[in-house]
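Inverse folding, one chain.
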């Protein structure tokens, strides 16, 4: 109860709505110390690097590939794949964001501001994901099951790390949760489903998706603190 009251007070001071990412984050306007989001991102990143070195990516994908291709759940996973691929597609998300912004002009200033924030977040996270993917040049699971980075490249099959869909979707979820904290569980649930689809359909390694989620959340956090809520 005490921490909830403290968080509400800090959010009021900073003019920032609450955001949920595993726990409530206390963010002072001029705080110089690491936030829980930063600490969590650093710890998770270190664990993911260790997982890659231990070959956990290979183990997980090797178990998923036969289930997706020929297992009893293949038809169900195929429909899930189709649905999440459509909803996680950049063109579909962009259209939804623009529609939200337009609706906001006629219904609610809050919805309009959320739409504007999403446009900025979508553009920033999308650009960042493309830079990182092509700069690192990791081979996708369909190319090799080994952890292979070839460096800067524009080859489509060498743009696995991190997952661009996951970066953008988690960035969108964070921004939506910032403006509409009441529905934050649904926003993050949707982002998680999109991320899981990238693993289940063997388009990405688990580490691609996990790092993508961290990058997307941290990008949105920086945008909210440094840009979006200063435009209001």
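Residues assigned per position:
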């Amino acid at each position: 109860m005490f921490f909830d009251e403290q968080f509400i007070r800090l959010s009021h001071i900073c003019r920032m709505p609450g955001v949920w990412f595993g726990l409530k984050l206390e963010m002072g306007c001029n705080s110089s110390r690491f936030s829980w989001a930063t600490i969590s991102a650093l710890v998770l990143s270190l664990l993911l690097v260790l997982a890659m070195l231990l070959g956990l990516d290979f183990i997980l994908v090797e178990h998923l590939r036969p289930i997706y291709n020929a297992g009893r759940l293949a038809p169900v996973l195929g429909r899930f794949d189709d649905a999440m691929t459509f909803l996680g597609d950049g063109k579909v998300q962009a259209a939804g964001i623009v529609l939200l912004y337009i609706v906001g002009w006629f219904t609610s200033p809050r919805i309009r501001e959320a739409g504007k924030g999403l446009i900025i977040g979508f553009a920033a996270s999308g650009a960042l994901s493309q830079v990182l993917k092509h700069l690192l040049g990791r081979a996708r699971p369909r190319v090799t099951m080994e952890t292979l980075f070839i460096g800067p490249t524009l080859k489509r099959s060498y743009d696995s790390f991190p997952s661009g869909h996951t970066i953008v979707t988690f960035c969108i979820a964070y921004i939506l949760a910032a403006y509409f904290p009441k529905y934050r569980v649904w926003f993050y649930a949707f982002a998680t489903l999109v991320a899981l689809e990238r693993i289940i359909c063997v388009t990405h390694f688990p580490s691609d998706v996990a790092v993508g989620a961290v990058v997307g959340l941290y990008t949105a956090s920086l945008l909210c603190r440094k840009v979006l809520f200063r435009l209001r």
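The beta strands are 20-21, 23-24. Residues 2-8+17-26+33-230 form a domain with the Vanadium-containing Chloroperoxidase; domain 1 fold (CATH 1.20.144).
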